[in-house]
Write a structure and sequence with these properties.
Elements lengths: L2 H9 L17 H12 L3 E8 L5 E5 L5 E2 L5 H13 L8 E3 L17 E3 H11 L2 H11 L1 H10 L6 E2 L16 E3 L1 H12 L6 H11 L27 E9 L2 E9 L4 E9 L5 H22 L1
Antiparallel strand pairs: 1-2, 1-10, 3-7, 4-5, 6-7, 8-9, 9-10
Length: 297
């Protein structure tokens, strides 16, 4: 069986109605209403939620379409770096020089260190989506290798397209990354199950994501400490990665609670023409997160 066919078979999980959840009861109604409001206002919304214990898809909103995912695409980069470390490949080790300055998220550009170890760069990417660290790792392992890894995993709608740039010209990829909610949910679920390359590779990636400090989107409703949530807090444990760009908000994660565990992906593409529009998107993503919280807790 080819990797692509295997992945397609694994993602064909039993599916329930778009508004039904545990035990067939109505669920996610508030989230659907809030996401529907921004969709009617012109946003494009894609979401997928899978109950990890039953394997049921409990939310599906245009989850096969391809949308920009901004920094979420760095998840593929982290997988390639982790696989190089597992294989004892030289590209997974060593000290990497700081690349040319670029704006956006991250803390390396505020530090004096002119170079950092590969594993430290992976921590920065997982924790803050650090743009300098992302570009340094891409220079180390190569964008072609990241693309090949994604194809080997059977990902047909999810890809890291380019390095981070302050501006994108006509000869550059139009987006940093793209993805489908269904594939992204499958990917983070497979990481949790140790199915991406092997358990050490998968666990290493999840550990890098465990320090993720961006709880401003879906996770804003979970009440967790943005800077310290590696361990369970009131019975909740979160692992997530986010992406933000002009007119794009995306989050992928695993939320484990006392009663259930879910893998989720939510992407919203919108016309970022006013602060009110942006806040409406953030608000809808938060409501969706509150529904997730109710489902697992």
């Amino acid at each position: 069986m080819t990797p692509a066919r295997g992945r397609r078979d694994r993602t064909r999980t039993p599916r329930v109605g778009r508004h039904t959840g545990r035990a067939g009861g109505e669920s996610f109604a508030a989230g659907f209403a809030s996401l529907g409001e921004i969709a009617y206002a012109g946003a494009q919304v894609s979401a997928n939620v899978v109950d990890l214990r039953s394997g049921l898809t409990v939310v599906s909103i245009d989850d096969r379409i391809v949308l920009p995912t901004a920094g979420v695409g760095s998840l593929l980069l982290l997988i390639e770096v982790s696989a190089r470390i597992s294989a004892r490949d030289a590209a997974g080790f060593g000290i990497v020089d700081k690349p040319d300055a670029i704006g956006g998220p991250g803390i390396w550009r505020h530090l004096q260190a002119p170079a950092l170890p590969v594993v430290d760069l992976a921590v920065l990417v997982g924790a803050t989506g650090d743009h300098l660290a992302t570009n340094a790792l891409l220079r180390q392992v190569g964008l072609d290798a990241v693309r090949a890894r994604a194809e080997a995993l059977g990902l047909a709608r999810t890809a890291l397209l380019d390095r981070v740039r302050d501006t994108r010209g006509p000869d550059d990829a139009p987006q940093l990354s793209v993805g489908s909610a269904a594939e992204l949910t499958w990917l983070i679920t497979a990481l949790r199950r140790g199915q991406i390359v092997d358990h050490p590779t998968s666990d290493r990636v999840l550990d890098w994501l465990g320090g993720g400090a961006d709880l401003s989107l879906v996770a804003s409703g979970f009440g967790l400490d943005p800077l310290a949530h590696r361990t369970a807090d009131h019975g909740l444990h979160l692992t997530n990665i986010t992406g933000s760009d002009q007119g794009v908000r995306c989050e992928v994660g695993i939320l484990v609670g006392p009663r259930a565990a879910v893998a989720y992906a939510l992407t919203v593409q919108f016309a970022d023409t006013s602060l009110a529009t942006r806040l409406a998107v953030h608000g809808a993503m938060r409501v969706f997160g509150l529904d997730l919280l109710e489902f697992v807790a």
